[in-house]
Design brief:
single chain; 218 residues; mainly alpha; 10 helices; disordered N terminus
């Protein structure tokens, strides 16, 4: 699949805590389910989205210029709303990264990191919801545009993210099955419309900074 963009500690910090690997089921999903109430509160923020309709993607999976412009505006609002806290987060976990060069992280360190992530994510989620409302996105349309946007740039999204984990926790689903999501993602990546590549190409540089939001599920 497409290239992965390295964004240091901004990739949720747990990339550092797990020794540079990607988010994994054993190191993220299982440990964090202990904070179910916080996750449920995060998922409930999706209920504040004004447009609750279900978006049906076009058969050709082509984006419109309007969708791309609205999506870019949402990314810019999220970035401006949390970049100061992200910088603080990055500094903290860069320091921890240097401490973990010769040892594995403890469970306490992992859970403390998760607590930091939940707090930051909750604030970022509220910013996202307000931006979606401002630009008349339903969550399903937004997810389609997000996936299509990064596919067109050849950037790879993670197979699961905090928003999905929060949804699973809210539903009491402690054995989240990700196969269907991964199947849909693979199908979208197989054929990227040329019009999508043309519409998003001008945002390639900025997208390297925004990609972390999709990894968080924003």
């Amino acid at each position: 699949m497409g290239k992965k963009i390295a964004i240091g500690c901004l990739v949720i910090g747990l990339v550092v805590l797990i020794g540079g690997g990607l988010l994994t089921y054993n190191f993220v999903y299982k440990p964090v389910m202990g904070s179910v109430s916080s996750l449920q509160e995060i998922h409930q923020k999706n209920e504040q989205i004004d447009n609750q309709s279900t978006y049906q993607p076009p058969a050709d999976n082509e984006l419109t210029e309007n969708q791309v412009e609205r999506f870019v505006s949402v990314q810019q609002q999220i970035q401006s709303g949390i970049e100061e806290r992200l910088a603080e987060f990055e500094q903290k976990y860069e320091e921890l990264d240097s401490e973990l060069q010769n040892r594995e992280p403890t469970l306490t360190e992992i859970m403390n990191a998760w607590g930091d992530i939940v707090d930051l994510y909750s604030d970022a989620k509220q910013i996202q919801v307000e931006a979606l409302n401002e630009h008349d996105f339903s969550l399903t349309e937004y997810r389609f545009v997000q996936q299509s946007f990064y596919n067109a740039l050849g950037m790879e999204l993670f197979s699961y993210n905090i928003d999905q984990i929060a949804e699973a926790a809210s539903e009491g689903n402690f054995n989240m099955n990700l196969e269907e999501y991964e199947k849909q993602q693979d199908e979208m990546e197989q054929q990227v419309p040329q019009v999508n590549r043309e519409l998003v190409s001008q945002y390639a540089d900025s997208a390297e900074n925004w990609l972390v939001f999709s990894w968080w599920g924003l």
